[in-house]
Amino acid sequence: LSTGRAHPFATAALQDLGVNICDGTEVMEHARLIKSPEEIQCMRTSIAVCEAAMHEMRERLQPGMTENALWSILHQVNIARGGEWIETRLLTSGPKTNPWFQETGFRVIEAGDLVFFDTDLIGPFGYCADISRTYLCGDGKASDEQRRLYLMAREHPAVNADLVKPGVTFREFAEKSLDLPPAFRANRYSVIAHGVGLCDEYPHIANAEDIDEHGYDGLIEPGMTLCLESYMGEDGGAKGVKLEQQVLVTDTGVELLSTFPFEDSLL
Asked: Of 28, 60, 126, 204, which residue is the least packed, with the fewest Cβ within 10 Å?
């Protein structure tokens, strides 16, 4: 018997009957690797809801509001349009943008701050929209450093998307992906791409320098849905930029599923 989750009493009872119990996670992850047309349609619906919330967040972002207040808009729009829940609390601003993976809180967002977030949104029909964007708060002009980081972060998913093709191995993809400058490697994101479906799923494609230590190989196949990750924040730096694109692997390459625009003021 292979099962994902079972109550300990149920597990013990089955073992008493001589049933061999094993973790079903790996079986299920591989089973849901290739998405059906119906699943893709569910995912498109979730992304549409997510991006509607992202537009609302962009319009309502202003100096003086807290990170929590901005983050709550994502939840409200998702629930109002039939969505379900959100996996994380990843929205940060100003000095909290470096290093990545700090949770949203009561910090007051100031004019000129970079504000970025990772949606991790489970929308209608239970499918995930995992998209990251970075905004500039206020009507002022972005600094040269902010634009530099943004352009670097923007380049990585754009270049790496061209490498995603059926038949390419995870290792080949990692080794050919765009290198991070030395000053940015210490704060690199944990993966360059990961699967997405009912939530974050198999595979997690590690950076080339990490693949031997905690990565694994595999094959990119048509019907997979992936998120291409990009984070730029120098070791010891004061700010960072997070971007992420959600894609569908086709017979010839990728189709971009996330279409939310990038920031003109930072480009």
From this structure: 60
Distances (CA, A) of 142 to 113, 136, 158, 264, 265: 9, 7, 22, 10, 7
Helices 67-80 & 37-60 angle (0-180, nearest 10)? 140
pTM: 0.94
Q: Which DSSP state fits 178?
A: P
Buried b (16+ CB within 10 A) or exposed e, 33-43: bebeeebbebb
Closest to 155 (Cα-Cα) out of 29, 19, 75, 266: 266
- DSSP H helical segments within the chain, as ranges? 8-16, 25-31, 37-60, 67-80, 144-161, 170-176, 211-214
Q: What is the mean pLDDT of the chain?
A: 96
**What percent of the chain clears pLDDT 90, i.e. is strictly above it?**
93
Rounded mean pLDDT of 226-232? 98
| Residue labelled with tokens 């972005």 | 142
Selection from 46, 64, 42, 65 nearest residue 54 by Cα: 46
Structure tokens at 64: 């003086």
- Partners of 128 in the beta sheet? 122
Note the pLDDT of residue 25: 85
Maximum distance among all Cα pairs of the chain, rounded to whole angstroms = 69
User: What φ, ψ does residue 203 adopt, rounded to 5°?
Assistant: -95, 165
Structure tokens at 6: 């079972």
